[in-house]
Amino acid sequence: MRGRLSRRDRDRRGWLRGAPPPGWARVLPSALLAGVCAAELISPEPLDIGFLLGAIPPLAVLAHGPVATAVLGALVVVVLTIPVFSLNDPGSTDLLTVCFVAVLSVLLSFVRSRRDAQLVTERAVAEAAQRAVVPPLRERVGPVRCAGLYRAAQSGTLVGGDFFDVRAGPYGVRAVMGDVQGHGLSAVATVASLLGAFREAVLDQPDPAAVAARLDRRLVVDSAGVPHAELFATAVLLGFSADAGVVRIVACGQAGPLLLRDGRAMELDIEPCTPLGLGLADAAPPRVVSVRLRAGDLLFLASDGVTEARDADGVFYPLAERLPGFAGEEPAALAERVWADLVRHCPDVRDDVTMLVLAPRPQAGP
Fold it and tell me: Transmembrane segments in this chain: where (predicted)?
């Protein structure tokens, strides 16, 4: 779910991208010190392996703070000077070199620890700001159960070029899923602007076409006065009736949702109109398609990061073919199953991936 990084996402971020150091990095300096000492005690003849101890303080910098690094450096000096280990009697120059490396390692560990603490603070602020733009999706909005899945193309971010939201208003539940020009953090401002306009529009616009016109106007205003702005977005807007028995759909430059019914995935006959930001008011009004829903129906919306993902042979991910195989899943589980299947088909996903699952149920239902 959006709004938080899963454990899988933190692991994908990698050690060099801000994830905590792996366990082996923490254990390695101590294990190397213990291994050298044990080898010297067990061997009947002195071993020329004392040089390995010089690597312990620099290794400690990778995963330990200055105190632990200082302790390990001191232990290295002690081991080198205790006769029982017979480490070839290091001369004063060698011992001073090890001491210098240990002190320098403590200094580097202090700098790294301070920088890591600053990065943690900055990341927490960034995640809080992104959650403010795209808050977690509620599991149920009125008579509609919801589940969303978002994987940004830019690693470590919660918001990119794709967006979705589901809101209840005086005219029923409204949902939107879209894709703005570009992706990553550069698109966050446009996403914030569109979501703000959507949340306002659902309060006073009676149908999805009017909501689409409001979003279009927002982008037109945002790009006014900016030469060659070319600011646009594709989106699908849905408006459910009060009893969730009918959904009205408008597609702006993007394919409509798949209807999962009776174990089959059906493509709805929806002709996309002009993308948002190109002046819907100057073009023909968007076509609104009404679909009557049955108990157990699911509406599945996916961004082009799903439909245009290709495997090593260039074959597109067959969403409509795979989706019936996951029928019967809860909305949240369905999105996760599709994501797992997509990664198997195309391990190197380079675009923002967004899925929105909507399961309308009558208000009188359980």
Answer: 59-85, 91-111
Token digits of residue 215: 């979003």
Predicted pLDDT at 16? 60
Tell me the per-residue pLDDT of 72-97, one tens digit each, with 9 for 90 and over. Answer: 999 988 888 887 776 656 666 678 88
Q: How far apart are CA 41 and CA 37, in angstroms?
A: 6
Residues 101 and 143 in one domain: no
Give residue 280's pLDDT: 67
The number of CA neighbours under 13 Å toward the Cβ of 250 is 26
Distance CA(341)–CA(351), nearest Å, equals 16
CATH of the domain at 151: 3.60.40.10
* One domain for residues 200 and 67: no
Helical (H) or strand (E) element with 84? none
DSSP state at residue 223? H
What pLDDT is recorded for position 177?
A: 93
Residue 133 makes CB contacts below 8 A (sequence gap 6+) with 159, 188, 191, 192, 195
Alpha-carbon distance 327 to 261, whole Å? 9
Q: How many residues does the chain have?
A: 366
DSSP label of 16:
G
- The alpha carbon of residue 200 and the mean position of all alpha carbons in its chain are separated, in whole angstroms, by 26
DSSP SS3 for 103: helix
For residues 101 and 194, state if they share a domain. no
Consecutive H or E run containing 167: strand 162-169
**Comparing C-alpha atoms, which of 22, 7, 26 is closest to residue 109?**
26
φ, ψ for residue 16, nearest 5 deg: -75, -5
Q: Is residue 61 located within the same domain as residue 141?
A: no
Is residue 226 within 8 A of residue 167, CB to CB? The reply is no
Q: At what angle do helices 92-133 and 56-63 cross, to 10 degrees?
A: 10
Distance, in Å, from the CA atom of 11 to the CA atom of 21, rounded to the nearest integer, reads: 10
Q: What's the Cα-to-Cα distance from 31 to each of 36, 60, 106, rounded to whole Å? A: 9, 11, 19
- Cα dihedral across residues 135, 203, 332, 324: positive or negative: negative
Instruction: Give every residue of the chain whose pLDDT is below 50, as ranges.
Output: 1-12, 365-366
